[in-house]
Every structure is written in C-alpha cells, then in structure tokens.
Amino acid sequence: MIDPLAALGITLxxxxxxxxxxxxxxxxxxxxxxxxAAWLLIxxxxxAAVVADLLRxxxxxxxxxxxxxxxxxxxxxxxxxxxxxSALVSLLPMYFxxxxxxxxxxxxxxxxxLDRAVSLQPAWMLVYGSLYVFIGVLPLMVVRQAELFRRAxxxxxxxxxxxxxxxxxxxxxxxxxxxxxxxxxxxWSLRLIYQLDTPYGCFPSLHxxxxxxxxxxxxxxxxxxxxxxxCWATLIAVSTLYTKQHYVVDVIAGAAxxxxxxxxxxxxxxxxxxxxxxxxxxxxxxxxxxxxFALGVGGLWLAYWTGIIVA
Length: 311
Fold this sequence. Notes:
Helix content is about 75%, strand content about 0%. The protein has helices at about 5-25, 30-55, 65-80, 85-90, 95-100, 115, 125-130, 130-135, 140, 145-170, 185-195, 205-220, 225-240, 250-265, 275-305.
C-alpha cells in the first residue's frame, strides 16, 4: 500500500524537477524534433510505468502510481515553461488527500440564517459545473500574453494553497441533503457531483476563488470580457449555495482570497501591455468558451439520456 502523502511528495518533487531537465535536453535537439521528442518521451514513460507495474504489483500500485503522478506536472511544464504550472497541476490531488485525512476530525458547520433561507435548487448545477470550463478554458482562450498567464497561474496556486490551509485548520462539512429529490437531468447532475466530490473542505470556497481569479485575469485583457466574466463568477458563487456545496462564509472567504491574489500577482500587469489585436479578439475568443461549455453540457446530457452513468 502506498502512503498518499509520500506519493504526493514524490510526484510533486518529481514533476517540478523533471520539467526543467526534460526541457534542457530537448533544447539540445533540432527545433523540428523538440515537440515530437517531448511527446514520445511522455508516451514511453507512461508505457514503461504500466508494463513495470503489471510485472510487479498490479495496475494500482508501485512504479505506475509515481510515474503517472509525475506526468501531469511534466506536461504542464512543457506547455507553459514555468514551475508554477507544474506545481499547480501536481498539487491538485492534495484536495482529495486533505479531505480524506480530515474525515475523522471534528468538523464545523458555519451555517447562517441566509444559508437556511436558501433552498436546494438542482437547476443551479449547470452554473456550478461551468467553473471547470471557466477556469480551464477561458484564460487559455482570452489571455495570450505569457507574462500575464504566468501571473494568473500564480494566482490560482496562491488561492489553492490558502484553501488547503483552511481545509486543515477549519475542517467543514457541506450542508448537503441526504437525498437529492427529482429524476430530471439537473437532479441527476447534482447527484453525480455529490458522488465525485467529497462533502469536506468547504472553507474557503476554492470554487469561488478560482472563478474570480479567472474573471479578474480576463479584465486585464478586455474590460468588457472581464466584467461579464465577473458577473458569471458571481453566479457561480451563488450556485455553490443553491447546490448546498458551500456556506455563505465560504463564498465570502473564497472571493476575498481571489481579490487578494489579484492584487498581489495580477493587478500590476499593465492593461496597456496587451496588444490592440488581442484586446479586440478577446470577446470573440470568450464566445468560443460558451460553445465549448455547450458541447460539454450536451455530452453530459447524452450520458444521462443513455444511462451510461448512473447517479
């Protein structure tokens, strides 16, 4: 059995160190060989890990876990050439490790009268689920300046570390109901997210923090896109209450963490540094994100309609 904290430490250190080493080696090759060589190396590492593991301990342990744990951070470094990206991707599993560690601890339920006044509304699940496109695709589409993108990654990493500290220092239990009523697509989607996400680790809301970091980053490129994204981030914050994933205090703390991260890492990037062509193209690129989200919802609806996924 692999200790989860040991696995996390090895994969984090491995991915952060592997990125610069691999890039250094690739830069010794001719330019036209660098990208194919990078992907061949990743494929070879993954294949070797699977084969070695199957020969030794089986498909859920040993070398397989460590090598595949390193690969996401390595790919992030190859894509963005910054250790911040590598650390951000490598630390994502820490969310589940922390919630697993704190499961037996005394938990808090910081419920306010407003929390009790907000009833469960599964239809808000579509807004809640939009975060994954909002933080993963929107900055990639709108932000084309390498320096601003690196600052955004630093903001994402900062709020994630703040949230992890909060999860450890103030363990919370989400105000979820025991049963989600209804048989429609919205209720099915909410039951699915309940199955995938743990009810622990609410304060501060990382969902809200990431949404506002994404919106505020886009504001540095285009004011209109930024304000529109901020309005949608506000709806995402509201959705965390109607889906009973968070409390009001979680939302406030998550938003505060995002604005602090913006002030430290992103606000000092001059909006004048954005080329006029990128600023003009930002709204069109943002609309592409809407299309991608619609495709995602369509795929999820197809899974619901066909019964491939039971929730």
